[in-house]
Amino acid sequence: MTRDLLPLDQLLARQAERIPRRTYIKFEGKRYTFREMDRLASAFSAFLRQQGAKRGDRVALLSCNCHWYVAAYFGIIRSGCVVLPINNLLTHEEVGFILKDAGVFLVFHDAECTSTVDKLRQSGHRFAGFAEAVREGASAPASAFPPTAVDDVSTILYTSGTTGRPKGALLTHRNIAANALAALDAIHITQKDRFIVFLPLFHSFTYTVCVVLPLITGSLISLLPGVRPFQRVVKSLIVDRITLFVAIPTVYKILAEKNMPWFVKLLLNLRLCISGAAPLPPKVIREFEAAFKVPLREGYGLTEASPVVSFNRIEVDRQKPGTVGLPLPGISVRTIGEDGKDVPSGTPGELLVRGPNVMRGYLNRPEDTAATVVDGWLHTGDIAALDDEGFIKIIDRKKDLIIVDGLNVYPYEVEEVLYRHPAIQDCSMIGVPHEHEEGKELGIMYVVLKEGAAATAKELRDYLAQHVAHYKIPRRFIFSSEMPRTATGKIMKKELRNWYRDNESKRS
């Protein structure tokens, strides 16, 4: 096992030399060794150089999970370019904004995203299919690649803000590699471990924990296009003798309630399950562990921290249900009040994070960067309390953030689109707890129509579906004659949540 802090593409090259014949990726019944994945990465890199890509150019990935996605990620970096994974669930308008904002040189895509790509071609962006790139790159003359340095930016991940358009978080090789190594120390991964990956590869949690970490350890990844059909996940768990299962709380809730045959559970080889991307209710932990006799541990992170900040360990004295665990090795945390001073243990305050995993900043957003990373401390915007032992308890997520099945929904984005509808006078979106599923949130949109205008919930839902990803569309639209406002005219979302709790929750 190599534990050197190397650029990500060099980590792959090192493993291709050290364990060339060991399987790194298994996808759709085919096995791809570390050597084969390294060759594919070089083919993508050679293709980019043929296309005239220069050091620092941004190259996007728009695709479902597949082995080519992983190879292209490393190939982009190897060419000296910066990789920009894009959420393939976004609409072409949302993708178009990111491509323009980042000044993307070229987009690699799969067949599943052809419809989105076709709508974007007229905007002048350049696109290449995976198969085409590999074919042309593999036949290119051999040449030396520009060396990458560990402090170069390797990845740009777009994350939305509570006010304004999405921002690109600049992550260096050091950020991601150091975070994976710290997670390795916390989770105790070995070469014998086998990962199953069905969460989307565009998510920072998936890539750091489920791709880079097993790259470092030389572990096998069983890569699936997605979670559906779930029978495929169960089959891989058994056939591939999976030991590490990484998922979001919704998946664990389904499994805890699913009446799975005893002989299936008997065939499982799991030793640890990890939950991230959204809060995990303690009840789900208890029910899952009782049903499967496998430890389920929760962590916490955010894109700007590459992304893992803390984790509940397997050791009894290093776990505490109801918390998101202890900071990873090398990461420091503190909580501050509104005056910027540290608050006492057990007192809620804004959680700050410092360590080698903290991003360099936001792409072309110096003011946002200066406000978010202050003296090396990342201001998460999350409210947390630290106990005397250092365990982190998240009290409240970012003020307006809604988490829908593990995916972040920022109301401003949806509201901005809905305001374009000719019938809308005012609108405000809030997140409310699901009535029947603990830890799950629903998006609720309050709407005030213009005088004399008419619109139905279905009409507004259909309108949003043309412009935003499906998971961002509110579950309910509530029509009102007014909005609660502050003295300065700002809509009070807290008051809307009270309205919903007092008047609407029982009707949902």
User: Which segments are poorly predicted (pLDDT under 50) over 5 or more consecutive residues?
Assistant: none
Count of strand segments: 26
Task: Determine the strand fraction and express it as a percent band.
Answer: 25-35%
Rg measurement, Å:
23 Å
Share in helix: 25-40%
CATH architecture of the domain at 7-148: 3-Layer(aba) Sandwich
Q: Which structural class do the helices and strands define?
A: alpha/beta
- From the 3D structure, determine the CATH topology of the domain at 7-148: Rossmann fold
Largest beta sheet: what is the strand line-up? Answer: 2-1-10-9-11-12-13-14-15
Overall mean pLDDT stands at 89
Shape: globular
For the sheet with most strands, the description reads: 9 strands, mixed
> How many individual helices?
16
Gap between N and C termini, in Å? 53 Å
The CATH class of the domain at 7-148:
Alpha Beta
